[in-house]
Design goal:
The complex is a heterodimer of chains A (481) and B (545).
Chain A lengths: L1 H14 L9 E2 L6 E2 L6 E3 L8 E2 L7 E6 L2 E8 L2 E3 L2 H8 L6 E10 L2 E4 L3 E6 L6 E7 L10 E6 L5 E6 L7 E8 L2 E10 L4 E6 L2 E4 L11 E6 L5 E13 L7 E14 L4 E3 L9 E8 L5 E8 L4 H4 L6 E8 L4 E10 L7 E7 L5 E7 L12 E6 L5 E2 L10 E6 L5 E6 L8 E6 L10 E2 L5 H7 L3 E8 L7 H12 L1
Chain B lengths: L1 H29 L7 H8 L4 H11 L5 H24 L12 H10 L8 H17 L6 H19 L1 H16 L6 H22 L2 H5 L10 H17 L7 H22 L2 H14 L3 H9 L4 E2 L4 H8 L3 H4 L4 E2 L12 H14 L3 H13 L7 H13 L3 H11 L6 H9 L18 H11 L4 H14 L2 H10 L7 H10 L2 H7 L3 H11 L11 H15 L1
Helix pairs in contact in B: 1-4, 1-13, 2-3, 3-6, 4-6, 5-12, 6-7, 6-8, 7-8, 8-9, 8-11, 9-11, 13-17, 14-15, 15-23, 17-18, 18-19, 19-20, 19-21, 20-21, 22-23
Chain lengths: 481, 545
C-alpha cells in the first residue's frame, strides 16, 4: 500500500514539473536496461522504445541525441515515458543514423550523465502490422486465447479473434498470403471447429476430401496467387519430460503435405509429399509459387519411444499452379539429418534470396527445444549465413519475414525460458543480422512481467487486418449456419 | 428491536454462509490475485467494470480465512437486504414483510456455487443498489436534475461496474418517470425488464454472454443468462410496483415458498463432491493431514490413487499401513469427473508436488492455474516457484515470485519458496511422464532420492494396488536384503509360492495366515489386509465381466 501511495505521488510530482537537463557531469558508469535495447537496430517507423533502468540508480531523464537534435525524455519510476508524437517527429529524418541515449540523474541539485548507448535507426521501415496469437505457454488445456494485431508504430493492440467471443475454442495457425492482410486463414478447434479463410468480409470453410489421409489440415502456407494453401496433415501428440529442461515433446507419428485448391475445393497431392516411408511437414511456397519447400524425416514406428530419432531435413518440390500438379523430383536443400540435427519452419524471404529455418537437435516441434536456433542460407549461393547475432542459449523458433525482406520477427524464450516474446531483427545489406529488439511497450518491464501469455506465430503484414474479434466471430457463426 | 432483528439476521446469514460456503469462499481466494501495485490498480480502473473488479479482488483476498469470507459475504447480503428494504419498504409495503426481497439474496447464495463466479457480481449489485438508494433522495426534484444525475450515474456505473449496471441506472430513471403515470407504472416497468432481458439474450447469441451482460458474466451458473439478467433487472421493477398491495398472509405464503424453492435449488446446485475437495484442499494447504484422514474415514467413498487421502496418509508415513482402511480403487482407474476439473488439477498438483513428481506437478499446477477465471492461482504459482527451481528454470520462478511479492498474504511464502534449497530431485534419466506407468516414474524418483518417503510409499502402493507381479519383482530386486513392509509381504504370498516367499524374506506368520485364508478362513478376519483388497478387487472385476 505504501508503494502504491509513493507511486501515485511520484507520478503527480513528475507530471507537475518539466525536466531540463543542464550542465550534466559525464560519468563512465554503465547502467543496465530492460529490454536490452543497447546497440540494437530499430525500424524508422517503430513505436517509442521505452525501457527501464534496472540499476537502483535514480534516473530522471534520458537524452536521445542524433546530430544536432536532442529529445529529452522523462523517466518515471526508472522507466522512460517517450512521447509518441515527439518520437515519430524525431525519427522522421533519422533513417540510417545512430541515436545516442544518455541516462541522466539529478543528485543534490547537480545532473550526472551516465555512460550513453547507441541505437541504429534503419532506413528500412517495417510492415505496419504485427499479428500474433497470445496463449499461455500451454500444456494440455486452455482457457483464454486470441489472435491480435498490433500497430507497430504505436502500442495499439486489437483482437482479430478471441475465444471468449466464440465457444472457448482453441484458435491457431493464422496465416496470411504474401504479407497481405486481406486474406487470412485460421483454424478453430473444439467449438465452431474448422479451418476458415477470411477475405472480402466473408468467411469460407476449407472443406475438402481429406478422408484418405490419417489427419486433417494442420500447418498452412499460402501460395502467392492466393488460390492455394499448402497444408501438412499431421497426427500430433504431446508428452511431458520427467526431468528434461524442455518441458514438452510434441511429435507426429504421421504427416503428409498436400496443396488445397480454394476455388475447386480439391486436394492436390503427390506420392513424393505423401510418402508412407517419410513424415512430411511445415510446407512453405517460394515467393514465385513455383516451389514448395517442406521438412521431411524418414518414417519409423513407435515414435513415442523413439522420438529422438526424428531428424527432419528441408526439401523442395516443383509446383505448377496452372496444371495444379507437383513436380517429379524432390531436392534436398538443407540436409539437417546428415548433421544429426533437425530443421523446421522453412521460410523464404519475399525477394526469394534467403531461406530462414529453425535448427534443433531432433524432432520437428522446435518451439519447446531450448537448443533451437535460427539458421539461414543464401539460396543463390547455397552459403550459410551467420545468424549468431539473433540467437541465444534458449529457444528461437517460429519466424516470418517482412514484405521487403529486410526484417524478420521471431519468437524466443530467451527472457526466462518459458514465455515466448517477439523479437525483430534487421537484415543488413551485407546479409548479416543486427542485434534484435524486443517488441516495444509503454512500460515493457511491467507489461512483460505481468503477461502470462506467450507470443505465438508472429507474422508481419503490410496493413491493418480488417477483422475484429466480434466481426470474426459473427462471420464464423454465419458460416456455421 | 430493529437492532436485534439486524443482529439476528446477521448471525443467521453468517452461520449459513460459514456452514455452507466457507471453503467455496476460500476457493474464490485462491482463484484470484489482488496486487498492491499502482500499475495494476490503474490498469484495471481504466477497464469497464474495473472498480468493481478491484473492490471484489481486494475483499476476496481475505477469504483465505474462512470466517472472514463468511463475514464479508454476509455483509454483502445484508447490504443488499438493507438497500432493498430502504427502496421498497419505505415507499410501498411499509412495515409489511415482503418475500420478494429475498429473491436477490437467494440468487446471491446460488451464484457462489458457480465454479467461475468470482464475487464481482455481489460487488456490482451492491454498487448498483447503493446508487439506487442515493437516487431515491433525488425523487421529487426537477426532471432535468434527475436526468443529469442518471446520465452521470449511468456513465460512472458503466465504468465502475459494467454495462448491465449502466442499464440498471437507466431503468431506475425510466421507472421513476413511469411512476408518475399511475395506470402504467408497475406493468410498464416489468415490460422494460423483459425487453432488457430479451436484448441480453439476443446479445448473448450473437456475441457472448460475457460481452452482452458484463458484469452479469460473473453469474453464469446453469441457464443463467436469463435468470440472472431478469433477477437483476427485476429489482427496480419491484420498486416500481408500488401500487400493488399484497395481503400479509399471501406474503407469508410467498416467503415460505421462496425459502423452500431456493433451498431446493441451492441443494441441487451444491455439489458435495466438489465442496469436499475444496475442504480437503484447504486442509492440505494448511498441512492438516489428520483432518483429511478423519474427513474421509467416516464414509466408504472410492479413494483414487492420486487423492488427498492417500497423500495425507503418506505424509504421516501411514499409507501402506492404513491404505486398505479406505475403499482404494485400481490406480489405472482414476475416477475423476470433468465437472470439477479445477479441483482435480489442484489436487493433482499438490499430491504430485509433495510426492516429488515434479514434472506431473508442474503440468497439473499450470493447468490448474489456467482453469481459474483469470488464469492465475497464487497457490499454484507458489508451487510453480518451487517446481521450476528444481528444473533449473530460476527465471520462471522469479517471474511468479515477482507477482506474488505484490500480494498481501503470499509475500512471506514466496520468499521462503525462493530461498528453499531443499528442492525436489529430478530423475537422472528423463523419459515421458507415465510412459511406462506411474510406478516407473516413482521408481526413478525413489532411486535418485531414497529419503523421499512419500514417493516411496506411493511407489509401493501403486504396485500393490495394480497387483502387478513384474513391478513387484523389480521392487524386490531393487531392495534385496531390506526388510519388507507387511503389505508387500502379503502381496508376495499371493504372487509367489511359500518357498519363494521364504527366500524373499516374508515372515512365516504371514505365510501361515495366508495359508489359513486359502483353507477357508473367513476373509473378514483379514480386513484391511492386501488379501482383502485382492478378494474385493477380484469380486469387482468378476462383476464387471
Amino acid at each position: 500500500m505504501r508503494n502504491l501511495i509513493i507511486n501515485i505521488l511520484t507520478i503527480i510530482a513528475l507530471a507537475s514539473c518539466s525536466t531540463k537537463v543542464e550542465n550534466a557531469t559525464q560519468t563512465n558508469i554503465e547502467l543496465g536496461i530492460y529490454p536490452d535495447y543497447k546497440e540494437v537496430t530499430i525500424p524508422c517507423n517503430i513505436a517509442p522504445i521505452n525501457f527501464t533502468i534496472t540499476d537502483s540508480t535514480q534516473i530522471d531523464a534520458i537524452l536521445i541525441s542524433c546530430g544536432g537534435d536532442t529529445l529529452t525524455v522523462k523517466v518515471s519510476n526508472n522507466c522512460t515515458k517517450i512521447d509518441i508524437n515527439k518520437w515519430h517527429n524525431f525519427l522522421a529524418d533519422k533513417g540510417g543514423k545512430t541515436l545516442t541515449f544518455t541516462p541522466c540523474g539529478k543528485t543534490d541539485g547537480k545532473w550526472l550523465a551516465y555512460k550513453p548507448f547507441s541505437v541504429e535507426v534503419s532506413a528500412d521501415s517495417i510492415d505496419k502490422t504485427f499479428v500474433y496469437r497470445l496463449i499461455p505457454p500451454g500444456y494440455e488445456i486452455w482457457n483464454r486465447m486470441g489472435i491480435y494485431q498490433r500497430d507497430l508504430g504505436t502500442y495499439n493492440e486489437r483482437a482479430i479473434y478471441e475465444n471468449r467471443y466464440g465457444k472457448g475454442n482453441c484458435v491457431n495457425c493464422h496465416s496470411f498470403c504474401a504479407n497481405n492482410s486481406d486474406q487470412i486463414m485460421i483454424h478453430l478447434r473444439a467449438g465452431l471447429a474448422g479451418t476458415y479463410v477470411f477475405s472480402d468480409n466473408t468467411a469460407n470453410k476449407v472443406e475438402g476430401d481429406f478422408s484418405k489421409f490419417n489427419a486433417g489440415p494442420t500447418y498452412p502456407y499460402w501460395h502467392p496467387s492466393g488460390r492455394f494453401i499448402a497444408f501438412s496433415l499431421n497426427k500430433i501428440y504431446q508428452d511431458f519430460h520427467t526431468a528434461d529442461p524442455n518441458i514438452i515433446e510434441v511429435y507426429d507419428d504421421f504427416s503428409d503435405v498436400i496443396v488445397f485448391d480454394l476455388e475447386n475445393k480439391t486436394v492436390i497431392s503427390s506420392p513424393l509429399t505423401c510418402s508412407a516411408d517419410a513424415f512430411e511437414t511445415f510446407p512453405c511456397f517460394s515467393p514465385d509459387g513455383k516451389w514448395l519447400y517442406f521438412c521431411t524425416s524418414q518414417a519409423f514406428d513407435s515414435v513415442k519411444w523413439n522420438y529422438p530419432n526424428a531428424h527432419y531435413s528441408i526439401c523442395r518440390i516443383g509446383f505448377d499452379a496452372e496444371k495444379k500438379e507437383f513436380g517429379t523430383t524432390v531436392d534436398t536443400i538443407v540436409n539437417a539429418a546428415a548433421m544429426g540435427k533437425s530443421a523446421s519452419f522453412p521460410r523464404i524471404s519475399p525477394d526469394g534470396r534467403f531461406l530462414l529455418y529453425t535448427l534443433s537437435d531432433y524432432g520437428n516441434f522446435s518451439i519447446w527445444h531450448h537448443e533451437a536456433d535460427l539458421k539461414m542460407i543464401d539460396l543463390q549461393t547455397g552459403d550459410s549465413i551467420d545468424t549468431s547475432p539473433i540467437n541465444s542459449p534458449l529457444t528461437e523458433s517460429y519466424h516470418s519475414w517482412s514484405s521487403d525482406s529486410r526484417w524478420v520477427v521471431f519468437s524466443s524464450r530467451r527472457g526466462n525460458g518459458l514465455y515466448t516474446r517477439p523479437y525483430f531483427a534487421h537484415l543488413n545489406t551485407d546479409g548479416t543480422f543486427s542485434k534484435p529488439m524486443l517488441l516495444p511497450q509503454q512500460n515493457p518491464q511491467e507489461y512483460y512481467q505481468k503477461l502470462f501469455f506467450s507470443y505465438n506465430i508472429p507474422e508481419l503484414v503490410k496493413s491493418e487486418v480488417d477483422l475484429t474479434a466480434r466481426k470474426t466471430d459473427l462471420l464464423v457463426r454465419k458460416m456455421q449456419k | 428491536m430493529i437492532l436485534s432483528k439486524i443482529a439476528l439476521t446477521t448471525v443467521l446469514f453468517c452461520f449459513v454462509t460459514f456452514a455452507l460456503q466457507r471453503f467455496k469462499l476460500c476457493t474464490f481466494e485462491s482463484d484470484h490475485l489482488f496486487l498492491f501495485d499502482a500499475d495494476w490498480i490503474i490498469g484495471h480502473l481504466r477497464e469497464v467494470g474495473g472498480l468493481n473488479l478491484i473492490i471484489s479482488s481486494f475483499l476476496t483476498q481475505f477469504f483465505k480465512f474462512p470466517i472472514v469470507g463468511a463475514i464479508v459475504a454476509t455483509a454483502f447480503y445484508l447490504t443488499v437486504l438493507l438497500c432493498l428494504k430502504r427502496l421498497i419498504f419505505s415507499t410501498i409495503w411499509a412495515k409489511k414483510q415482503n418475500a420478494l426481497i429475498l429473491i436477490p439474496i437467494g440468487f446471491l447464495l446460488m451464484c457462489v456455487e458457480e465454479p467461475f463466479y468470482s464475487f464481482r457480481g455481489h460487488t456490482a449489485l451492491v454498487i448498483c443498489l447503493i446508487v439506487s438508494v442515493l437516487y431515491q433522495q433525488f425523487i421529487g426534484r426537477c426532471l432535468k436534475f434527475r436526468l443529469a444525475a442518471t446520465i452521470l450515474c449511468a456513465a460512472l456505473l458503466y465504468l465502475a461496474a459494467g454495462s448491465v449496471a449502466m442499464l440498471f441506472a437507466i431503468i431506475v430513471l425510466i421507472i421513476d418517470l413511469l411512476h408518475k403515470r399511475k395506470t402504467t407504472n408497475g406493468l410498464a416497468a416489468i415490460a422494460v425488464v423483459f425487453v432488457c432481458g430479451f436484448v441480453s439474450y439476443l446479445n448473448e447469441s450473437f456475441v457472448s454472454f460475457a460481452e452482452a451482460t458484463l458484469p452479469m458474466q460473473y453469474y453464469n451458473w446453469p441457464t443463467s443468462g436469463w435468470i440472472a439478467t431478469c433477477a437483476w433487472l427485476s429489482v427496480p421493477a419491484v420498486i416500481a410496483t408500488t401500487k400493488i398491495t399484497i395481503n400479509q398472509r399471501i406474503n407469508h405464503i410467498i416467503l415460505a415458498a421462496t425459502i423452500i424453492s431456493f433451498s431446493f435449488v441451492l441443494s441441487q446446485m451444491h455439489d458435495t463432491k466438489t465442496y469436499k475437495m475444496q475442504h480437503e484442499c484447504y486442509l492440505a494447504d494448511n498441512c492438516r493431514w489428520d483432518k483429511i484422514i478423519k474427513l474421509n474415514s467416516h464414509n466408504n467413498v472410492k479413494t483414487n490413487f492420486i487423492s488427498y487421502t492417500n497423500l495425507a496418509l503418506a505424509m504421516q508415513g501411514q499409507l501402506l499401513d492404513q491404505m486398505f482402511e479406505f475403499n482404494q480403487q485400481l490406480p489405472t482407474q482414476q475416477n475423476n469427473s470433468r465437472t470439477v476439473r479445477n479441483e482435480i488439477l489442484r489436487m493433482e498438483s499438490i499430491v504430485y508436488h509433495l510426492s516429488g513428481h515434479a514434472a506431473e506437478a508442474r503440468q497439473a499446477a499450470f493447468n490448474s492455474a489456467l482453469t481459474t477465471p483469470d488464469d492465475v492461482e497464487p497457490h499454484d504459482f507458489l508451487r510453480l516457484i518451487s517446481i521450476n527451481k528444481s528444473f533449473g528454470a530460476d527465471k520462471v520462478s522469479q517471474k511468479y515470485a515477482e507477482i506474488l511479492d505484490k500480494t498481501l498474504f503470499y509475500k512471506q511464502k514466496t520468499a521462503t519458496a525462493l530461498a528453499d534449497t531443499n528442492i525436489t530431485k529430478l530423475p537422472q534419466n528423463s523419459t515421458f511422464c507415465e510412459i511406462d506407468g506411474l510406478a516407473s516414474d516413482y521408481r526413478e524418483i525413489v532411486k535418485v532420492n531414497p529419503q523421499n518417503t512419500v514417493a516411496q510409499q506411493f511407489y509401493i502402493a501403486y504396485i500393490l494396488l495394480s497387483a502387478d507381479k513384474q513391478r513387484l519383482l523389480s521392487y524386490l530386486d531393487d531392495h534385496k536384503g531390506e526388510p519388507l513392509h507387511r503389505r508387500v509381504q502379503e502381496a508376495c504370498t499371493i504372487m509367489f509360492t511359500p518357498e519363494e516367499c521364504r527366500q524373499l524374506g516374508v515372515n512365516e506368520a504371514i505365510i501361515n495366515d495366508f495359508e489359513a485364508l486359502k483353507k477357508g478362513r473367513e476373509i473378514n478376519n483379514f480386513h484391511q489386509t492386501y488379501w482383502y483388497y485382492i478378494a474385493y478387487l477380484n469380486a469387482t472385476l468378476k462383476q464387471q465381466k
